[in-house]
Amino acid sequence: MWSTVAKYLLRSKLHFSVAHTTLKVQRNKCSPCSSLLFVSRWQHSAPVYEQTCPSETMIRNVETLDAQRFVCVHWEDGGQSHYPYVWLRDNCQCPECFLLSAKARKLPIENLDVNTGLRTVNLTDTNKVSITWPDNHQSEFDAKWLKKRCFSKESRAEMQEELFLQEHQYWGNDLKMPTLSYEDVLRCDQTAYEWLCTLRKVGIVLLEGAPVKQCELVTLGKRIGYMKHTFYGYTWQVQDKIDANNVAYTSGKLSLHTDYPALQYPPGVQFLHCLKQAEHGGESEVVDGFYVCNKLRKQNPEAFDILTSAQIDFTDTGVDYCDFSLQSKQRIIELDGNRGLLRINFNNATRDSVLNIPVEKVQPFYSALKEFVDLLNQPENTFYYKMKPGQVVTFDNWRILHGRKSYESGAGISRHLEGSYLDWDVVMSRLRALKSKLQNSS
Among residues 390, 380, 302, 398, which one has the least CA distance to residue 341? Predict the structure, then answer.
């Protein structure tokens, strides 16, 4: 039964509505992987993304377009794809040109004739495209491999989504916190995959039932790969300290921020494990920064342009794991090459007094920043929750801004969270590896 369920989940595509659904885990002692999703109001499948092309991809015929220097593949479904000669030669899959065990190209670019022609192109009876090059080198390309790499706009977008999971589901104060079992994440690949897919798409996931002890985050980090070592160590203790070297190590309110913009490459994912919670105060708050950035882009394009262009100095100085003196330059809102949202870099505590912009642009910068922060703090954009011991919140530090209400501190430790970081490269690597493992096992 459970193998049937797993196969069904793997073949399904996620239809997840943040405003109306909550991920909940129910345990079943009879199942080796006891995490199942049950949702309020709507049922949906696990977040396993569909393959880009069908399992049986068939070619009708191939032809050469010498004027454009393309091989044209005509598919049985009526579509066609164009592949440049030079790209095909560069991506020859033979053992001489490609190391299969490492999935790495062996052909040096200096040995590539970028103006190559081809001698012959044929469709084999095994549904592969066979090419003979002018130097008599032979290349063979599988139909499914070619279809996934079609150069059409639609196919390229599908492949980028499959590789990077770029789709986001935005939310405000209507967030229904996605929640999974900590133990199931550790021992069940399907649940771990659900966790990372949801983390990527929604930006935040709460794990419940973690042991209430220090260094447990090391175990969770190893489930993915390895943690990011910073000047605060592999893990760090968020609690009120005398002569605190970070504003988080006080009992006062923490304004909404992302962590570590003083690093040139800030951590992508953050874990916070609740070990002790204050009796009064200490509620956490989170905001979907990308959701707010899109609002700012619409209502004040000039402010958005300022925050995506001005490079602002951040600094962090002190002693923890070792002594440190960090300095970086960041745009508050970082865009990718297509002007899509890539990362938010904002921590008011570590924003430097050094402001390396022309004097006449100082006032417009402050006005733009103030409007952005005011939007972040609007009640309809802010979600509040109070962590309990044994809960681990995991969130996208490039997208989610987080803060905390003040709390009452006493003679002992009133509130204690342990934190750690991972880079998105490491998290996405595990996500892809889990996806491949689950697909192969199905």
Answer: 398
Does residue 164 sit in helix, strand or coil? helix
Tens-place pLDDT, residues 174-197: 999 999 999 999 999 999 999 999
Give the list of residues 6+ apart from residue 26 with CB closer than 8 angstroms, or none. 34, 36, 38
* Contact assessment for residue 60 and residue 75, using Cβ atoms and an 8 Å cutoff: yes
- Is residue 336 helix, strand or coil? coil
Which amino acid is it at 78?
A: G
431 is written with which tokens?
Answer: 């996500």
200 within 8 A of 426, measured Cβ to Cβ: no
**What H or E segment, with its residue span, contains residue 429?**
helix 424-441
Mean pLDDT of 233-261: 85
Nearest to 434 by CA among 133, 195, 256: 195
C-alpha 31/C-alpha 38 separation (Å) is 16
Q: What is the amino acid identity at position 36? A: L
pLDDT band at 417 (very low <50, low <70, confident <90, very high): very high
Q: Which two tokens stand for residue 11?
A: 């073949």
47 close to 197: Cβ distance less than 8 angstroms:
yes
Which tokens belong to 92? 């020859």
Of 232, 318, 238, 320, the residue nearest 275 (C-alpha): 238
Tell me which residue of 427, 393, 186 sits closest to 273, measured CA to CA: 393
Angle between the 289-299 and 362-376 helix axes, to the nearest 10 degrees? 130
Question: For the whole model, what pTM was predicted?
Answer: 0.85
Token pair, residue 145, equals 């491999």
pLDDT per residue as tens digits for the range 357-412: 999 999 999 999 999 999 999 999 999 999 999 999 999 999 999 999 998 887 77
10 Å Cβ neighbour count for 390? Answer: 17
Question: CA torsion, points 271, 277, 283, 287, in degrees to nearest 10?
Answer: 0
Residue pLDDT, tens place only, 130-173: 999 999 999 999 999 999 999 999 999 999 999 999 999 999 99
